[in-house]
Amino acid sequence: TTWEPPAEGFMSIEEQEEEAKEQALQAELLDQLEEEEAVEKSALLEEQRANEERERLRALKRPKDKEEEEESVPYRRDYSVPERVDPYGPWQTVEVA
């Protein structure tokens, strides 16, 4: 077998160096994107964990609230006592001329 040169020709050393720089830059950008995605993912996981913790604490607190609510219901409010009168009087509409 014999070796045949490629139809598109050869790359110069400058073109090879430029291609290597571009590949290195692309690899760096990909690494940076992966790092940012990892940070976002960890923040999302932390937020989910915090939400689950809040829900768990809320579930633990609910039964106590219901018991307190049942205990506070036995008395009745006396509606015969009038509410405090607004010391400044009722609202009035002001027209600007």
Structural features, described:
- The chain has 97 residues and is mainly α.
- It has a domain at 12-72.
- Helix content is 62%, strand content 0%.
- It is built from one helix and no strands.
- It has one helix spanning 13-72.
- It is elongated and about 110 Å long.
- 0% of the residues are buried.
Strand count, sense and barrel status of the largest sheet are: none
Rg from Cα: 37 Å
Fraction in beta strands: under 5%
Number of helices: 1
What letter string, H or E per element, gives the SSE order?
H
Mean pLDDT: 84
Q: What level of helicity do the residues show? A: 55-70%
Organism: Bracon brevicornis
Biased composition (Basic and acidic residues): 39-66, 73-86
Protein name: WW domain-containing protein
Region (Disordered): 1-23, 36-97
What is the element layout, followed by pairings?
Elements: H1 13-72
